[in-house]
Amino acid sequence: MSKRLIRHQHSIVVDADAETVWALACAVPRYPEWVGVTLAMLESVDRAATGATYAERTRVLGPITTVGHWTVVRCDDAALFQRHECRDEPGPVKEMWLEMQVVADGSRTRFDLAIGCCATAGPLTRPLASVLSRKFRSGNDQNVRRFAALAERAVRSG
Question: Which branch of life, at top level (predicted)?
Answer without folding.
Answer: Bacteria
